[in-house]
Amino acid sequence: MAPKLRCLLPLVEFFKDLFLTEAELKQLAEFADVRLVYFKWADSTGYEELLAEFKPDVVITGWGSPKLTLATHEKTNCVKLVASLTGGIRGTIEKSVMEKYGVRVTNWGEIGTPAVAEASLMMTLASLRKMNYYQNLLHVKKEWGTLPARGERLFKRRVGIQGFGKISRHFAKLIQPFGCDVHTYSPHVKDDILKEYGVKRSNSLEELYSQNDIVVNLAGLTPQTEGCVTREIFKLLPNGSHYILTGRAGTVDMNALVDELKSGRIYGALDVYDKEPLPADSPLRGLENCILFPHVAGPTTDWYPDIVAQCFDNIQRFAANKPLVHEVTPELYDFMT
Q: What are the tens digits of pLDDT across the range 64-120?
């Protein structure tokens, strides 16, 4: 019988209770030698020494796990697979480790796709219905307010989607019952795909932002999209429009977005930011016209068992030299948060 893989779990303490039950850890121990070690958030103190001593074949990572740098890997040279229980991987491995040493990486893959689309719909509806205003009114001010309601409908509205990848396509399906007039700016998506989803093409970012009063930014971060939503683009949004950001904060001039929101001219619902965690003194905090979420649009807790099962399956696939599911290649690395 082949020896078991050595599997290290360098996790922030809350993560085990959130993702991994005792039953799941026992399941992992059936096919791997397991060591669970708690670290402080994004703190790699002692990580290199641990790798050198335990020499794991596989590292299972989560939010806040220590980062496998090129320098660390060159000293320890043991890790062959990093299996992330989350979507983001930049925080737990440097791209150069994958490129130079062929260390393979997986994440939660498609499990996150419908979740972010669902969250985008929820945030759109919350912004339209002025959730911040009413929650502040009832919870903080302890008042009732006056009729008529301040909210707006989603039915029959013009909706613009920036980017038309897998999450955007899920989102387009979710809003179909609302009978919206949906447009997208995604230059490389073919016409037959847009027709399949009942979505019209915008020929420029300027057109998308100026002609839709609800814009959902789900664009991936690439060299072409980085910082593409400039101050000039934001000024094209119609007065009273709603801006939903669940894609990549790097596509946006966040200072310009803050200024537009502070002016009161538009409404916003944001899940991603250029600085995370969001600083306590962020000018976004306290704006009644802006709903804030702490980067939680991904899978909800009831999806976690599926994520763990996929992670364990990938480890067994790796041991059996079978193709991995949702492998993150160096070419895909730059698209990940």
A: 999 999 999 999 999 999 999 998 898 999 999 999 999 999 999 999 999 999 999
Instruction: Tell whether 165 and 232 lie within a shared domain.
Output: yes
**Looking only at Cα atoms, what is the longest distance across the chain?**
73
Which residues contact residue 74 at a Cβ distance below 8 angstroms, ignoring those fewer than 6 apart?
none
On whether both 70 and 130 belong to a single domain, the answer is no
Residues in the chain: 337
Which tokens belong to 78?
Answer: 């043991």
**This prediction's pTM:** 0.88
Task: Find the domain containing 141 and state its range.
Answer: 113-292
Verify that 13 and 133 share a domain, yes or no.
Answer: no
pLDDT digits (tens, 9 = 90+) for 283-320: 999 999 999 999 999 999 999 999 999 999 999 999 99
β partners of residue 39:
12
- Looking at residue 324, the DSSP 8-state letter turns out to be P
Let me know: does 84 contact 62? Beta carbons within 8 Å.
Answer: yes
Separation between Cα atoms, residue 126 and residue 137, nearest integer Å:
15
- Contact at 8 Å (CB) between 267 and 150? no
Task: Tell me, yes or no, whether 180 and 83 share the same domain.
Answer: no
Clarify whether residues 98 and 130 are in a common domain: no
Which residue intervals of the chain are DSSP H helices?
13-19, 22-29, 47-54, 70-76, 95-101, 112-128, 131-135, 166-174, 191-196, 205-210, 231-234, 254-262, 304-319, 330-333
Contact partners, residue 144, CB within 8 Å, separation at least 6 = 137, 138
Please return the burial class of 214, using the count of CB atoms within 10 Å of its CB with bins 0-12, 13-18 and 19+. Answer: buried
Return the CATH number at 23. Answer: 3.40.50.720
Q: What is the DSSP string of 232-275?
A: HHHTTSPTT-EEEE-S-GGGB-HHHHHHHHHTTSSEEEES--SS
